[in-house]
Design goal:
570 residues; mainly alpha; 21 helices; 72% helix
Length: 570
Amino acid sequence: MTGETDTKADTRDYPVDPPLIDLPIDTHDRGFYDGFSRQVTIPSKIIVSLIIMWAIFFPVSASNTLSAANNTIISTFSGWYVYLVVALGVICLALALTPKAGSLRIGAPGEEPEFSRFSWFSMLFGAGIGIGMLTYSTGEPLAHFVNNPQIIRGEIAAASAEAVRPAYAYTFLHWGFAAWCTYALVGLAIGYVAYRRNLPLTIRSALAPLFGQKMSGGAGHVVDIVAVVATILGVAVTMGLGVEQFVAGLHRVGLGDWLLDAEGSSSTLAIVTALLVLVGLSTASALSGVGRGIKWLSNLNMGLSVGLLVLFLVAGSGLLGLELLGTGLYDYVRRLPELSLVLFDKAEPFGEALVQWQLDWSVFYWAWWIAFAPFVGMFIARISRGRTIREYVFGVVLVPSLMCFVWMTLVGGTAIDLELSGAANGSILEAGISDQLYATLAVMLDPGVASLVAGLIVILLMTYLITSADSAILIVNTINGAGDNDGQRRLHIVFWGAALAFVVGSMLILGGIDAIRITMIIGALPFSVVVALMGVAIVKAVIYDLIRKRHGVPTTAAACENWDGQVEAS
């Protein structure tokens, strides 16, 4: 007998007990924390507040300590991140392709999805990747165009025509299946037990198939606290990138030199002003809930994104972009096992440079996706009820990945083509990563049109930033509220909006985007252990449900509640 059971049956003629369908989490019943788990909410607020105060009042100590910790963590655990992400991808693929497992529904049998496919894809894309994609659509291909493992080994020349195809193999590696399989697995592990077994929509519930009722107590509180902190830090990286590019765009459209400092980075006043506007709007949107603010903003994001892509297809290097999409997909799929599993060694030729490249790019991305996963995973679970595992996995992994690839090839391909042809004369490569998209437009279009399109990108960035912050605030409150996303949570929404603004602002002003990246990598490590356990838990949950179905044992909460303890004929 194996046990994840909470049912009343006394007969023992079935091989696997019915699933756990009740995971009580202690929540306060009055006052400011009414409906919240104080054991999760208060420690989470304290930890985030201490990070903010440390960065503001002890910037030198914070910078030195974070840098030292980052160097130790990212070098020591690089292999852990690489192989964990590969394992998550294998689990997602296996669940989707196994016929019986893939047909299981995230919800009751026959339940219809809440959102249309278009709205579902729009929300997936906007919350999961949007801001980073705008920054890295030029930044990533250009970076690998001038430096990647083949260039480091001396096999090809930097910034040459031969460097383009490998640049896209690595770009697709970082923005493709690895990111979306990580999000998909976390969302599936949460949504499966929440909507089939009626467990709370929170991180700890995903581990209930492994640890049962233990997740109701202290261990579950720790899991949710780690998830809240990782969420705030992971979203802070994305928000930081977006704010930098937002300010650069405002400067491009002519709103004044006060937006930039002497070094060409965002000025303190610009950062503060941008955060006041963006977080203020996102907090207001969060108060309206997922069905209103996030849904309509996500649809607007998708519409503006498609318009911008059409512009690059028509006015940019569209044919080259489509060619790069085809060759990039071919190279990516053909080299995926090699690219995913390689772990460079300092002892090999050019080892120091190769290891540093992998730490700066692949390992950073894996940590970023893992830190972002509680937010995106919870959000995906929230909007994916009623879909089968197969539709869910392929929808979450393939469609957004393909959208990222199209963005990277059409936008980044145009930037590379302008540099290779000499039209840019180095102006795009020399621009900062937050300004490279605008620099590409400046070369590609007439000044007036370039300024107009830059304004469009600023609006698109603003909607992406609001959507991401909006979603993160709601998800953090859902975790703190033991899976309940209803009720009066206005003051808590305001707190987390302000906390996110302070984390982003303090780190950008005191240490730039690198300070946020370092903090996020450190915060991602404990949650990576939780993600690994989630992978084991969802596999166990699905396998046991298939065994239950074969032997007539109920697999959903509604079926368990009506079960009389007698097995049905298989």
